[in-house]
Amino acid sequence: MQSLLLAATALFLLNFNALGTATGSRRFSQDLTYAWFGNQAWLYPRNGAVAGATPKAVVVMIDEPALALRGARWPVPLAFHAEFLAELAVLRPRAIMLDFLLIDPAPAADTCAFLSVASDLKKGGTPLYLAVTRLEDLGVLDQAGCRDAAGNALLADQVLTPVAVRKQVDGADFVNRLYPFEALSADARPGAGLPSAAIRMYCDAQHSPDACIARLTQSVIADGGFELAWSPQGDPFNQRWSHVACNEISSPSRAILNQPVLPRESPCPPLPTLFASAILDPTADATLGEQNEQLFGLVEGAYVFVGGNFRGSGDLMITPMHTLLPGIYYHAAALENLLAFDGRPKVRKEFRDSKLGFYIYDLVVLWLLAAIFQWRQRRVDDGQPGAEGPFHLSPSARARLEQLAARIPTPLWVLAVVVVLVLLAAYKFLQLIAVAVAAAVVVVIEFRIASSIEMKARLRAVGLYFLALGLSLGVIALAIWIGYRWLMLPPGDWIGYLSFAAFGFFVAHTAILEFERRVDELRRSRRVTGETR
Amino acid sequence: MRTLPGITLLGLLAAASAHAAEPPATGTDACLMLNNRVLGPRTKDRPLPLMVRDAAQAFHYACSASWSTLSPNNAPLPVLECFRGTLLQVANGSACGKDSRPLWVSSRWVLTSADLQQPVTRVAVCQQLETGAWAGTRDFSVECAERAAAKPAPLAAPKTSTSASPVPETTPH
């Protein structure tokens, strides 16, 4: 029962989020997992079970050189969008998402040309999805009173599909690792909003699009979203224009060596990226093939996301790798997640309707970890009753150090400790050195001073500690894998679990023992008082 | 021992070879080559997107038409004009129906005789993503009418200002 209490205490402390302090380790655990393993198919199966079988997402960036090739300039005129979509139509993509808000009035002829191209795309089997802030945005396009070749009214909602493009930030660190299922107005119930771009595009390709959208939007609370899995590795297609190697990944050893563990830049994004200027000008990228074979191979049958790459536009996202990318990657990566996980993306437990079950799952995992801790404690006590934990010095070593400390005036060694701690706080490179030196000093002292019996007990305690830690790591890895693979949870708070397995249970256990001791004392004193009366 | 005529001849040959070794023509120059013609599509037989140019020299989408509509006899079409080496004006103004303005097609989708004469060169692709977060406002190309400048007031007495011409409303973004 004590292990259950320990587990419940750990669960509470790991989820105690009064000032947002708990979410830090949770988010960092998730981001590090993707930074180290996001390019592995077992974690993020981006290409599906069979390479090439899953349609891919391709990003196309409209930039200033592309506008110049058509004599246009920013803001992107509607005429340019019509021309460019007509050019993309040649490549027969599976679908096109245009991540531009077309809410400014434009000449009627350009509006009608745009709607005509959208109509042709739809007839050719390539649906066009248009970014809107609300459904009324389409009214601007309908004001032109366009008609098709047969004289029928050409309305925006008949030829294109409006999609929500609201970005959701994680309140803990403002990273865009959450993708909303829909844009909901205030007081609206889940499922009643405008689906986000990736949700709409994915579900429209399913047998029952409405059922797909309902399943995704109604199984979560309002304003819920799914976690974006992310690959740290750049797409090899981008090597043609990226000035850095696209296959570099951050190594886990950087965390051990106290180096930054998340990349600062992603100059080679994980999705294949074409620049519009390369599509419009064959000489801009001569490697796309004399018969455009590379271009067809990349775009034909793919989901194409068209966004802007303009200096100072402000449409940026902070990726789960804590880098900046143009906002269009937010939607492209979200669709890639839906494709990779067969429409069952990772959703954190706080957004689930029945979240209590997931917390009970966490409790079971922590109970196992607490049981391992208790087992370790019993084994140490069996070997030497009253034995101290692995972090305590042996009595001989402690006595020797106390004698040394007694020789130095208290204010002096307090000042020395303060100076050392300030230096360690100010100079990061000293921290690892200090830990290594402290560990070496403790080991040397123990070997020189402690008796052979004490040494055996210490080594046994340390050995049991690392054995318990290893077992705990195995339990944590298995628990996170089960949660990720079968419960559709994002990578869990393994940093939090590990910290409890390594240190937290010792503190909690001591506090619980002290509490039990006080309760026993109170009971005994009441019994004695009762007997006296 | 080389003679003077031999040295002169060598010099002339060197000059000629230096002239012949000039870098190939750029996109625009190649487009404007004499007798440049559109030979056929590079679209996997899909319709070619065609554009027209308005009086303000801006391009607009006109229609998409097959190569057989653009060139019914499957004959090479002369390139009449080029825009930045990427848009080619072809000798066909009727492929899009009633609009008889000259039609333009992107050089991405057609093969020209200039392409055949150009050596295939692998050019460096100079692109990058704009991810800088700038603390400044991007300029909009908003047309506005300048107010008429007030005439300088005489030293003797102040003069009332003339009414300014109304500034057209801009669409809020």
Task: Name the descriptors.
heterodimer, A: 533 residues, alpha/beta, 19 helices, 51% helix, B: 173 residues, 7 strands, 21% strand, disordered C terminus
Largest interface (CB < 8 Å): A-B, 62 and 48 residues
How many H/I helical runs of chain A? 19
Order of strands in the sheet with most strands of chain B? 3-2-6-5-4-1-7
Provide the residue-averaged pLDDT of chain A.
86
Overall helicity of chain A: 40-55%
What general outline of chain B do the C-alpha atoms trace? globular
- Span of the ends, CA to CA of chain A: 35 Å
Mean pLDDT of chain B: 70
Major β-sheet profile of chain B: 7 strands, antiparallel
Distance, first to last CA of chain B: 80 Å
Strand order of the largest sheet of chain A: 4-3-2-10-1-9
Describe what you observe in this structure.
- The complex is a heterodimer of chains A (533) and B (173).
- Chain A has helices at residues 2-15, 23-37, 64-69, 78-90, 108-123, 139-142, 156-159, 197-204, 209-218, 253-256, 276-280, 293-299, 328-340, 356-383, 395-407, 410-426, 428-449, 452-485, 494-532; strands at residues 57-62, 95-98, 128-132, 161-164, 178-180, 182-183, 194-195, 225-227, 273-275, 303-308, 316-318, 324-326.
- Chain A is α/β, with parallel strands linked by helices and 533 residues long.
- Chain A has a 6-stranded parallel beta sheet with strand order 4-3-2-10-1-9. In chain A, strands 5-8 form a two-stranded antiparallel sheet.
- Chain B is an alpha+beta fold and 173 residues long.
- Chain B is 18% helix and 21% strand.
- Chain B has helices spanning 4-20, 27-31, 67-70, 113-117; strands spanning 37-41, 48-53, 59-65, 77-83, 87-90, 103-106, 110-112.
- In chain B, strands 3-2-6-5-4-1-7 form a 7-stranded antiparallel beta sheet.
- At the A-B interface, helix 4, helix 5, helix 11 and strand 12 of A face strand 2 and strand 3 of B.
